[in-house]
Amino acid sequence: MPEREIILTPGGYRRLKDEIDYLSTKKREEVADRIKEARYFGDISENSEYDDAKNEQAMLEQRIFALEEKLRSAIVIDEKDIKTDVVGVGTKVTLQDVERGDVVQYSIVGSAEADPTDRKLSNESPVGHAIMGHKPGEVISVAAPRGETRLKIIDIERA
């Protein structure tokens, strides 16, 4: 089964690399220190501090492995290839709710970088998927939990 393609912006790639570097160095050292310290508390077979530290180590190693896998299968969007004539990964899109008139701006990113609270929408999310490839001025219908929403693309720029 082929690996799932991960699309990253250059900023997302740097953040992922920085997280791997932090977890592989500083965080690993912190956990190793906790394990070493917990050994001084006595018999490790009944030492909850030691067990907690070993569990944290296992979760840390699992997180590092998952991030490295993500990085290996990542496709980084080249900033110079980002077009602003249509919505795509790496663009910032201004949308208007046709019925309510609300205007909102989102950066379109790959699923690995999505963070709706930071106005970063995945290209695979319902709204992101619906607007991909569309141009300013177009009105797109998006299925939402409370019913269909119609969004007008006002502007597209590089994120």
Please give the structural blueprint.
Blueprint: E1 6-8, H1 10-39, H2 48-72, E2 74-76, E3 91-97, E4 103-109, E5 120-122, H3 126-131, E6 139-144, E7 147-158
Parallel strand pairs: 1-2, 4-5
Antiparallel strand pairs: 3-4, 3-7, 6-7
Helix pairs in contact: 1-2
Summarize the structure.
With 159 residues, the protein is an alpha/beta fold. The chain has 3 helices and 7 strands. The chain folds into 2 domains: 6-76, Helix Hairpins (Orthogonal Bundle), CATH 1.10.287.180; 81-158, Chitinase A, domain 3 (Roll), CATH 3.10.50.30.
Task: Walk me through the structure.
With 159 residues, the protein is of the alpha/beta class. The protein has 2 domains: 6-76, Transcription elongation factor, GreA/GreB, N-terminal domain (Helix Hairpins), CATH 1.10.287; 81-158, Roll (Chitinase A, domain 3), CATH 3.10.50.30. 38% of the residues lie in helices and 26% in strands. It is built from 3 helices and 7 strands. It has helices spanning 10-39, 48-72, 126-131; strands at residues 6-8, 74-76, 91-97, 103-109, 120-122, 139-144, 147-158. The longest helix has 30 residues, at 10-39.
